[in-house]
Amino acid sequence: MDEEIFNLQLRKFLKNVGVTSQREIEGAVRAGLEDGTLKGEETIRAKVTLSIETLGLSADIEGEINLA
């Protein structure tokens, strides 16, 4: 395995995950504010599941996002 190529590919993948996740969360929060599901003062719980079927990897990453 070429460590440099692996590292670059991993960073590229993680950047895509981060950008896409942020976009999706922002859209969902805005929609929640518009339809009244959210008031804008909440702390929302989030969970991401990372999986790589080939490696048998499944990891949940949980956290909180404060809106105010």
Overall form: elongated
Topology as H/E string?
HEE
Q: Kindly estimate the percentage of residues that lie in beta strands according to DSSP.
A: 25-35%
Class by helix and strand content? Answer: alpha+beta
Number of strands: 2
Helix content: 40-55%
Distance between the termini: 45 Å
Rg, rounded, reads 16 Å
> Total helix count?
1
Mean pLDDT: 98
What's the structural domain tally? Answer: 1
Largest sheet: 2 strands, antiparallel
Strands ordered across the widest β-sheet? 1-2
The poorly predicted ranges are none
Question: Can you put this structure into words, describing what you see?
Answer:
The structure is a single chain. With 68 residues, the protein is α+β, with helices and mostly antiparallel strands. It has one domain. Helices cover 49% and strands 29% of the residues. The protein has a two-stranded antiparallel sheet with strand order 1-2. The longest helix is centred in the N-terminal third of the chain and has 33 residues. 0% of the residues are buried.
Outline of the structure:
The chain is α+β, with helices and mostly antiparallel strands. The protein is 49% helix and 29% strand. The protein has one domain (3-66).
Secondary structure blueprint with pairings:
Blueprint (H helix, E strand, L loop, with lengths): L2 H33 L7 E10 L4 E10 L2
Antiparallel strand pairs: 1-2
